[in-house]
Write a structure and sequence with these properties.
- By secondary structure, the chain is an alpha+beta fold.
- Helix content is about 40%, strand content about 25%.
- Strands 8, 9, 10, 11, 12 and 13 form a six-stranded antiparallel sheet that branches. It has a four-stranded antiparallel sheet with strand order 4-7-5-6, with helices on one face.
- Helix 2 (about 45-55) links the parallel strand 2 (about 35-40) and strand 3.
- Helix 9 packs across helix 11 (about 270-285).
C-alpha cells in the first residue's frame, strides 16, 4: 500500500493498550519507512508526541488524517524539487549562539543573519535613549514596546506611529509604558523599540512552523486582516528555491493585490520570492533551534524597491 491510516478511536486513551500501539508503530516504521502511517485516536498529548517522534502522523479526527495523506501524495506527484544550496545559512547557524529568549530587536537581527532585509531598529531603555536613537535614524519614527510577554503590541497601547521631535518622542515613550503597565501589569518590559516609519507597500506575512513529522514548514500570505479573517495562505516544506517561492506567492487568492490593483504599482515579487527562499534555508539550517518564526508584516514594496521585515517573533524550540 502507498499509505496506511489506522482508526483506533478512544482506544488511544488506554494505558493498558499503549505498549501494543507503540510496538506496532515501531515495527511499521522499521519495515516500511517510505509508507506514511497515520494513526487516528484520542491519545493523551504525551503519547501523541511519542508517536510523532517515531515519525507517525497522529490525529484525533480520521478525516484530517485522510486529508493529510492526500496532501502528502500531492507532494510526491509534483515536480522533483531542485537542489537548494543551504551552505550559507548553515554557516551562519553555526556562528550564532542561541539565546534563552528573543525580543523583537534580537529577532530582527536574526532575520538579517538569515539574509532577509529587516528594518533598522534600536532598543531604547529610557526616553533619552529613544531621542538619541531617532536622531541616528534621521526620520519620523515608530515606537513599540519590547516585551517577551506581549505579542500583539497595539492591543495594549504599545505602539506609537509617525513620531517626530524630541518632546514628542519623550511623550510617546512615557505613554507607551503607562498604557502597557495599565493593561499588562505582569508583563516584563525590556524597553521600547525605535525604528523609521516604513514606506507604502503591501503587508504580507511569512512564518515557519517546525512540525514534529515534516520538519520546518514555511507559510506565506497577505498580512493583517487578510490572514486573520480570510486565512489566505500557502505552505511549502523547507528548504526551497526561488521558483518554489514564486509558485507559493502565486497560489494565494490575494495575488492580484501584489500584481497591482486599482492603479497601485506592482510589488517587487522577485524580491519577495528571494526573501521566502532565504527564510526557508534558515528554517532548515536552524530546524533544531526554533519551533516557530513569524514575520508580520513583511512589507512588499513597489517593483525594484525590494521587501522589508517590520516585525518578528521567534520562539525557541524548548520554549
Amino acid at each position: 500500500y502507498d499509505a496506511l491510516a489506522v482508526f483506533l478511536a478512544a482506544a488511544g486513551s488506554s494505558e493498558a493498550l499503549w505498549p501494543t500501539f507503540e510496538t506496532f508503530a515501531r515495527q511499521m516504521q522499521a519495515r516500511h519507512p517510505g509508507v506514511p502511517l497515520a494513526i487516528s485516536a484520542l491519545f493523551p498529548p504525551a503519547r501523541r508526541r511519542e508517536l510523532e517522534r517515531l515519525g507517525c502522523l497522529v490525529f484525533p479526527d480520521p478525516s484530517a488524517a485522510i486529508r493529510t495523506i492526500g496532501a502528502v501524495a500531492g507532494l510526491g506527484s509534483g515536480p522533483a524539487p531542485g537542489v537548494v544550496d543551504t551552505s550559507h545559512a548553515t554557516a551562519n547557524a553555526g556562528a550564532q549562539p542561541l539565546l534563552n529568549a528573543y525580543n523583537e530587536v534580537q529577532a530582527m537581527e536574526l532575520l538579517r543573519q538569515a539574509g532577509l532585509p529587516a528594518s533598522p531598529c534600536v532598543l531604547a531603555g529610557d526616553a533619552e535613549a529613544a531621542v538619541r536613537a531617532a536622531a541616528s535614524l534621521g526620520a519620523a519614527c515608530v515606537l513599540k514596546v519590547v516585551s517577551p510577554d506581549i505579542t500583539h503590541k497595539s492591543d495594549v497601547g504599545g505602539v506609537k506611529l509617525n513620531v517626530q521631535g524630541d518632546d514628542a518622542l519623550r511623550s510617546a515613550y512615557a505613554d507607551i509604558l503607562a498604557a502597557v503597565r495599565q493593561h499588562r501589569p505582569d508583563a516584563r518590559i525590556d524597553g521600547v523599540l525605535v525604528a523609521p516609519m516604513a514606506p507604502k507597500g503591501v503587508e504580507c506575512i511569512a512564518g515557519v512552523h517546525c512540525d514534529p513529522v515534516f520538519g520546518p514548514v514555511v507559510m506565506f500570505g497577505l498580512g493583517g486582516v487578510f490572514v486573520e479573517v480570510l486565512k489566505d495562505v500557502s505552505f511549502r516544506l523547507a528548504p526551497f528555491g526561488r521558483d518554489d517561492a514564486l509558485a507559493m506567492i502565486r497560489e494565494i487568492k490575494g495575488y492580484a493585490l501584489l500584481q497591482g490593483a486599482r492603479g497601485a504599482p506592482p510589488c517587487d515579487i522577485g524580491a519577495l520570492a528571494e526573501a521566502l527562499a532565504a527564510l526557508s534555508r534558515f528554517a532548515h539550517a536552524r530546524r533544531a533551534d526554533f519551533s516557530s518564526v513569524e514575520i508580520n508584516p513583511l512589507l512588499a514594496l513597489p517593483e525594484g524597491q525590494g521587501v522589508v521585515a517590520l516585525d518578528a517573533v521567534v520562539i525557541r524550540a524548548d520554549a
